[in-house]
Amino acid sequence: MELTEDEFTTQVMRHLFRSRGVDLSGYSQSFVFRCIRRRIGRSGHLAYPGYLKHLMKSEEETNELLNALSINVTEFFRDKSSWDAFVKAVLRPMIERKTAGGGLLRMWSAGCATGQETYTMAICVAEELEDIPGPERPMVTVLGTDISHQALVKAKSGVYEKDQVKGLSDRMLAKYFVPVGEGYEAKDIIKKRVRYVRENLLDVPTMKYFDIIVCRNVMIYFSRKMHEVVARNLFEALRQGGYLMLGKTETLLGAPRDSFDVVDLENRILKKK
Ligand SMILES: C[S@@+](CC[C@H](N)C(=O)[O-])C[C@H]1O[C@@H](n2cnc3c(N)ncnc32)[C@H](O)[C@@H]1O
What we know:
Layout: H1 5-20, H2 29-43, H3 48-57, H4 59-68, H5 80-101, E1 104-110, H6 116-129, E2 139-146, H7 149-157, E3 159-161, H8 170-176, E4 177-180, E5 183-186, H9 188-191, E6 194-198, E7 210-215, H10 224-237, E8 238-246, E9 260-264, E10 269-272
Helix pairs in contact: 1-2, 1-3, 2-4, 3-4, 5-6
């Protein structure tokens, strides 16, 4: 079977969508192809059809390809426009509701890695609460969970090297971090709001009734079956009317998909019906 470069790239993208729910349609074909070419060189399958067959059979190669696409990195305010949309469509209205009605606002960063996402959420909260008089401010908690013990140790320390704080503006860095050694440490104003627990997303969640769950760039590494288990668990952990934000390339697979309304397709923001 002769495949052109474009046909081959399209078939690889289709495989990533079907097997992991990763939607790369917004990426340029040539960027995707360059990443695949790097993997082809390393995999030993030099012809397109051979590599495609290998990729479709191998979970490991699929993970390697996702890594090559740099989908595994984490950073503060990763995909900045999504966080802007998140604040406007989710956090601000939720804080307004809780301010008026009282009660606790519970947020969860599921698969938080080394904590940049969790602290991003805590910074967004701090910025939004700033203009609300102290006694009226709702209580807001942010839980960060990950399967990696090592990642959680770093997350809890709240200490990051210079090149790891690139996503933060100078203003935010000065406001929410203090310089330590060669890097920066999160200040108590954001650290105090955050709690970390080791948890496997494939297990039935021990904590529930979240108002907001952010689960970004985690399920892309899972088989479709695993993705569906995690999607079900996230659905169960969310309150009715609660929000779920996925990574920018992700799509929710499986039954829970119909139990959500799409709030913002581009930024993968969903609302539990
Ligand atoms: C690519 S990082 C995503 C970090 C962050 N959410 C972001 O988008 O920047 C994926 C994280 O998922 C975690 N992870 C993988 N499998 C998991 C599982 N079964 N349960 C919980 N966390 C898991 C990994 O340890 C890793 O820290």
